[in-house]
Amino acid sequence: MNLPPMHRLANSLFFRVSTTFLALSGLFAGGYFLWIENVVTSPYDDDREADWYEHRAEGELDSLAEEVVAALREGRPADELIQRYGERVDEFEAELVVFGPDGALLASSSPDSLSAAVRTVDAALLAAMALPGWDFASYPVAEDIDAYENRIFQVNALADSTRAEPALGFLAATFRPMVIGAAELESSNALLGRQTLLVKVLVGMLIWTALIALFILAWTTHRVARLTGGVEAIAGGDLNVRVTDASGDEIGRLARAFNRMAKRLAGTVESLSAKEQFQRQLIANISHDLRTPLASLRGHAESLEMRFENMDAEQRRAGLSAVMNNVDLLQKLVERMLLISRFDTDQAALACEPFPAIELADEVVRRCEPLADDRGVTLDLSAPDDLPLVEGDPLQIAQVLQNLVENGVKYNRAGGSVTLTLRANRTTVDFVVQDTGIGIAPEDLPHIFERFYTGCDSRTRGQGAASDLLSQNSGLGLAIADRIVRKHGGHIAVTSRVGEGTTFTFGLPQAGQAEPERTRAARA
Ligand code: ADP
Asked: How many of the other CB atoms lie within 10 Å of CB of 23?
């Protein structure tokens, strides 16, 4: 997505978290200053005082004024009414004074206070103050801010509103004068100074916190952005991307988990492509191995068909026998492939029983003698007479031995030898097939048990006439032998020196030891 830079910034985690943080800090700071404004520097001592001045004073003073009017009309003095109400509002630092129509003081709620010193107030001023719309925040006596008139916050004209008659006087409500001593002034100045410092420190701390928080945010979002880059690279197919983050926190752990995941993903993809490559190779090998005997088979069959009438009995028999040899070869190849796939899918079963290894080895050697004679290779069997019985599937073990001995002959030279040695070990009987042949190149050794592996140059090396079954290198013999021995709980070991010979060794459990041996092998 190619978004414009501003849009990208607005969509970024950094922008969103930092604006949220700044908004919250602003709210916090605003709330704090509002609190200072409203609570700490409030003109009222408490909620009751605020409630009286803000909501109740006007109504109550109006009713008081009406009561005073009634009293004056009846010729009663207003002192008692004023005194009583004065005591109620004394806690709010308020005072009440009744003036006559000429502005002379008639009664006062607190004769001790400064208002007691007031004898007269300008009646015209009082009349003006009693009218609606007077601004009590103004100073009527500008030259003396402590003047009584300046502290008045409500004036009621003492007159019956239903009758058109001149006012009997005025009811004035004032704030009590504030008496501040020098020491008090000093301490409140110091308090003010401390408060200013506190506000400065708080603002400073707020700025620093914001800066540090923004730095941490930028660092964190940068790391998250790196991880996002990694994930996007993987999504784009680059499996080699890794994120470096050595930190031990959650993002660091996430980065390491991401790297592990990427590595495993790369490994899986690699093994999948290796598998695919292997499947392709497998099909190519199978086709190759089947094609040669098939072509030979076809050649012999065609020649028989074309020249059948002109052939004598001997020639016909030779042709048919060549056809049969190739059919045998094909059958053997297909059987081997089937067998190996049965091992690979774990469908091959063993028919284990105790059997004398020496008899089995003798039979295998005898079966291989014609081939060995053919190649000028001598075969030897060496085993002690008291060799214990072994536990295993004799048919399968015979196949393993035959394959090893035949290989010893195949990859030998005239005059060479193959020795099959049997010897008792602690709980096993070991089978050792040693030849004096051409040996196996070190680079081939790790691969010879893989199916269809025939060595770097052996496809041409042992290739003989198509009719010679053993000359065909299928690369399946050792793969099958290895699977059979593994199924018995052991494994085939091999050592070889090029030009000197090769030795294959595997062990089978002695009869009665089968279970422990197999378990040990499985554990190993
Ligand atoms: P094949 O003999 O049909 O090729 P194997 O699976 O039996 O298949 O052997 C695999 C390969 O291992 C052979 O092609 C050969 O290169 C090598 N090899 C096996 N046994 C020997 C041996 N005794 N001496 C030298 N090379 C051997």
From this structure: 10
> At 477, phi and psi to the nearest 5?
-55, -55
Q: Look up residue 314 and give its amino acid.
A: E
Residue 490, C-beta contacts closer than 8 angstroms, at least 6 positions apart = 428, 506, 507, 508, 517, 521
- CA 502 – ligand 1 centroid, Å: 10
Amino acid residing at 180:
I
Residue pLDDT tens, the chain, 524 long: 567 778 877 777 778 788 888 888 888 888 887 877 766 667 777 888 889 988 999 999 999 999 999 888 888 888 888 989 988 888 888 889 999 899 998 888 876 666 667 778 999 999 999 988 899 888 898 888 788 888 899 999 998 777 767 788 999 999 877 666 667 677 767 777 877 888 888 888 888 888 888 888 888 888 899 999 999 999 998 989 999 888 888 888 899 999 999 999 999 999 898 888 877 877 887 888 788 888 989 999 999 999 988 989 999 999 999 999 889 888 988 888 888 888 888 888 899 999 999 999 999 999 999 999 999 999 999 999 999 999 999 999 999 999 999 999 999 999 999 999 999 999 999 999 999 999 999 999 999 998 888 876 643 344 443 334 445 677 889 999 999 999 999 999 999 999 999 999 999 999 986 454 444 444 43
Degrees to nearest 5, angle at CA 139 with 133 and 145:
160
Residue 408 alpha carbon, nearest atom of ligand 1: 23
Give the long-range contacts of residues 202-207, CB within 8 A, separation 24 or more.
202/32, 203/29, 206/25, 206/28, 206/29
Residues 351/392, Cβ–Cβ less than 8 Å = no
Q: Six-digit token pair at 490?
A: 């052991």
Residue 175 has φ and ψ, to the nearest 5°, of: -80, 145
Q: Is 475 close to ligand 1, i.e. is its CB under 6 Å away?
A: yes
Kind of pairing between the strands at 390-392 and 417-424? unpaired
Question: Which residue is closest in CA terms to ligand 1's atom 26?
Answer: 440
Cα 62 to chain centroid distance, Å, stands at 74
CB of residue 438 inside a 6 A radius of ligand 1: yes
Q: What is the dihedral of CA 395, 398, 404, 408, to 10 degrees?
A: -140
Where are the alpha helices (H) located in 345-428, listed in sequence order? 357-375, 394-410
Q: Kindly give the number of the ligand 1 atom that is closest to the alpha carbon of 476.
A: 6
Closest-CA residue to 336 (of 469, 479, 463, 516): 479
CB 170 within 8 A of CB 139: no
Whether the CB-CB separation of 266 and 240 falls below 8 Å is answered with: yes
Token pair 């020496």 in the structure block, residue: 358
Residue/partner pairs of 101-109 with CB below 8 Å, 24 or more apart: 101/166, 101/167, 101/168, 101/169, 101/170, 103/170, 106/78, 106/169, 107/77, 107/78, 107/79, 107/82, 107/83, 108/82, 109/82, 109/83, 109/85
Say if residues 315 and 451 touch (Cβ distance below 8 Å).
Answer: no
Q: How far, in Å, from the CA of 404 to the mean position of ligand 1?
A: 9
